[in-house]
User: What shape does this take?
Amino acid sequence: MHTAWLHVAAGGQLPSGSGRRLAATADLVSTSWQREDSGIWEVRSAPRHFTESKMMCWIGLDRACRLAAAGHIPGSHVSEWRRQANMIRRFVSDHCWSPTRRAYERYPGAAGVDASLLLPVLLGMKPGKSMIGSR
Assistant: This one.
């Protein structure tokens, strides 16, 4: 989703049918972000609510909202994408940020951080940054 957004932001056009597929992907993210997973590193422990996974779901929904606002993808579900993105932000803020460490934790309650958490921050998910819809 981020790559598609970068492409159109640079003046490119999405290939025919891509907009519908990207919108369907945003719909999938909206319904699946609350599930536990094995994380980017595919850890062999039980699935968890990995912070990086949640953050990348937020990035995907944020970019889908931007693409829809610019008319590049169907926007009939934007209000739900925005609602879910705001829920993700609240989850990450309430459960994944450590004010003591001043850093995101690998997953809620984890004893450590993870280098994968740098990417979502570089892509725009930062503590205190406005939520989608409140820009």
In short: The longest helix spans residues 51-69. Residues 106 and 128 are 19 Å apart (CA to CA). Residues 17-122 form one domain.
